[in-house]
Amino acid sequence: MGNVASCCESCFNSRRSQSYEPLLLENEREAVADLLQYLENRTTTNFFSGSPLSALTTLSFSDNVDLQRSAALAFAEITEKEVRPVGRDTLDPILFLLSSHDTEVQRAASAALGNLAVNTDNKLLIVKLGGLEPLIRQMLSPNVEVQCNAVGCVTNLATHDDNKTKIAKSGALVPLTRLARSKDMRVQRNATGALLNMTHSDENRQQLVNAGAIPVLVSLLNSPDTDVQYYCTTALSNIAVDGANRKKLAQSEPKLVTSLVMLMDSSSLKVQCQAALALRNLASDEKYQLEIVKADGLQSLLRLLQSTYLPLILSSAACVRNVSIHPQNESPIIESGFLQPLINLLSFKENEEVQCHAISTLRNLAASSEKNKTAIVKAGAVQSIKELVLEVPMNVQSEMTACVAVLALSDDLKGQLLEMGVCEVLIPLTNSASSEVQGNSAAALGNLSSKDGRNSPDDYSAFNDVWEKPDGGMHRYLYRFLTSSDATFQHIAVWTIVQLLESGDVQLINNIRNSTLLIPNIRNLASSRTSSHNSSVGTPTSHRSQSQSYQDTETGEGAGEIQQLGRRIIEILEGEEIVAGSLPATSHMQPGSSVESEHEELRRSVREAFAPGSHR
């Protein structure tokens, strides 16, 4: 505090000059003397209360600018070394000093206020006492040091949620946006940091956009300073959470994606991570899903995906998942070498989100192309799923079973999947606590049982092998679904039984015919005039469109399909000749085909799940 002591001594000594009138009032002279004494014992003095604070207050409210400088410098140096919750008696003199016309007083007072604004309680009290107005005035100062300290203080104040809206409505955003372009890197860092802190709510993001922040933030992505890059990338990532803002970005910032792709190769890990997250949020829209691939973003994402640093893995996996939503991106992603890294991440037990992103991406990649389905199976995805699915968290189970359901749509892969023993893990999951896991597992079994494209009765031997086990086998699973209160599950069960009977496999037909669990319930559904109520818990992801097709039970449409299938089962079992393809086409949606026809809905649901913070 040498500068403070020197300034005080200068004021004190001038009192003794005989060439002009005394400059200090009596109380000011005493305050200077007291402060000099306290400064000599600064290590044991509490300047935030009692006589030390009283001395500083007297100097702060003096009309003598030198005394104000002494007080401001003292506050700045004291708060640099010690920050604690303070009261109005401490903040009032500092806020008064902020209104000084002297640049040195402004600089030191804003530094002191910025130091105190690190404390949570102080953040609120500073704003409550009207601290924003003088800070905004100082942001407009031509002095770079004053600008820097004032913006730094606002940055600290903006870290408290209760202050964000007040700052947004105070008129601070326009000067903050202007100062983000400052040639002084310290001012630029503080300003972009403050803008970032203002992007954590919908209302404030809109205020920022209205203040013209978007083009400033985008232009600063090319800053040589990694802190500025980080603040701007993260702010844009938050802004891109809103669909309306993504449209504005698409219309006004054609170089945004290219800049973010370049930042994924930054020397800073935190910048790489935020660039991938920003692209993830942008990729909620189809335009950006395509543009990321066009901008050669896949190779950078692949590199981050194979990192050993969890935030990079998580951000890149989330981004690739969104990019994979677009059908045109499926083959480019596979051709870029993503399959094996994605499959490896299925066993990433350290983080459930990474597992979910990886399996969801594989499911998206399998959605539109037989070639891609085959490549995914060949790469070992199904084998990994089989080994892991019974042990992973429920959310991951839901995604894994949905992926198998999509793969099982391929007539060329059904036999291979059955030979791999996937039924052994799907059957236990039809009794999961999660209705989505139940439904997706049943959808996969239904798709595997589908007769289309299969001729040999031997293909169905796998279903005989699992008729009674594990966990009661196909037999108990079909019984649970037939007796479910969810009409969707009933529909899946009777449709699957029709497929199994149509196979012509004698043992399988006898297993069904001789079942005292299945036949009575099939007869009940065949004679029923009203549909069972759909479950209020929710229907499986793979069957959402199916359940909606007969949600209105009064129409009897869903009930009619279930009844028709039940009657057909009885007709077959009572001895009518079974000829492949002899069953009439019905209007019901097969478990597998509902996955295929619902492809766009599935993509939309993924986009909705990843809107903000990430985040997921």
UniProtKB/TrEMBL annotation:
Chief place where the protein resides: membrane
Pfam families given in the database record: Arm (PF00514)
ARM repeats mapped onto the chain: 89-131, 130-172, 171-213, 212-252, 255-297, 296-338, 337-380
Membrane topology (UniProt): Lipid-anchor
Keywords (A to Z) from UniProt: Lipoprotein, Membrane, Myristate, Repeat, Vacuole
UniProt biased composition (Basic and acidic residues): 596-607
PANTHER family named among the record's database cross-references: VACUOLAR PROTEIN 8 (PTHR47249:SF1)
Protein name from the UniProt record: Vacuolar protein 8
Species this chain originates from: Favolaschia claudopus
